[in-house]
Amino acid sequence: MSLSELEALARHELAQLNYPASNWVLPHEGLLDVLVVGGGMCGQTATFALLREGVRNLRCVDRAPRRREGPWTTFARMDILRSPKHLTGPDLGVASLTYRAWHEAKYGVAHWQQLHKIPRLDWADYLMWVRETVQIPIENEQEVLSVSPRGDLVEVKLRNQTVRCRKVVLAMGREGSGAPRWPSENKPEGAYHSADDIDFKALKDKRVGVLGAGASAFDNAAEALEAGAAQVVMFARRPHLPQVNKSKWASFPGFQHGYAHLDDASRWRFYTYILSEQVPPPYESVLRCEKHAGFSIRFSKGWKDMAHESFDAVIVCTGFDVNLLDRPEVSSFRDAIETWRSHVPPAESEKFPEEARFPYLGDAFQLKGTMPGIGRVHVFNWGSTMSHGALAGDIPGIETGARRLVSGIVRDLFVEDADRYWERVQTHNEDELKATRYFVSLSSRRRP
Fold this sequence. Notes:
The chain is of the alpha/beta class. Helices cover 33% and strands 14% of the residues. The chain folds into 2 domains: 279 residues, FAD/NAD(P)-binding domain; 101 residues, FAD/NAD(P)-binding domain, CATH 3.50.50.
């Protein structure tokens, strides 16, 4: 089966599933029902899920140009994905939209069977194929400047217009609930963050320092080495690399569906442990660096040790901090946002300060807090992890997360207009029995 044939099959199956579903949401003059901010994997999948549930008065915007949404073609620098090849998610249960179906159509069944893990750029192409096949309406180069709850609506300022919405979904990826993490307050001269646009060719014959020893550190080190860097020295605070991926353990259905229903103390116990254990780099990324003679790691060495070294360039691979104070989009109400700090003992928030900064979310990823209408804003990115687990960013949980998010949004849209729907059900009329001798006209009917 060719890709064009698979696309035709997928669209036929979507039609069999009545996609996109008819819009059932009652109109509110001048209001968008849902605005999805971010058109990467999370935003795209959330929009797809909304359309499947008949929420048609929506928009999905992304500040990046087309095909540059998310990390896959920008700062993700691994050769292959870290997830097993068989995982599903962006397909939302439609077999012809799975990565496997796409891969077999493009490369053949035998190639799939021999495949180790999914090439990163193939994953980016696959996501774009899903977007185009499903006809997910993503507006590129539309930057959101601010999000402001106003009680019964949310006002969103884009670069060139203001949009009024009933619901907003913040699906802005890893940095969507904070900012790139730096080991010092000021960005050092000649230093890059792993999320920056780095010209690796300019590092040829250079001496490069890498701070951090996670997956992105090895990926960036490998990029520098493959570009011809003379030497890459990696600095790790720990005495050795993390050995076990606890997050991988948490990707089974019971945890994904059940975690959010635990009490606060149990959720806090699970994820402070998982996050504190950290994630080992994939062995493929380690071996990618190890084959270069100019690569070395200095364990039990932090930023201060690195500061005494002389490098032509430094790449800081310390990930993203979770701190809503860093997000300009929510600056107008960030002090009103409830966080995990208020749900754990003070000693725990001091012990795990970043985890305490995670927003404390409701059952459908909605914010909680003191400002009227704050629950109309849903956080569908890494910031939701303490409340829901890894359902908004990592491939294994994306389908579970999107369905949970959209189920709550659909529920809220209906409940808010329950009185109007009550009026509609009373006036609803279909002459079902008109073709039979038992038909009674509307004007002749009596209530039982």
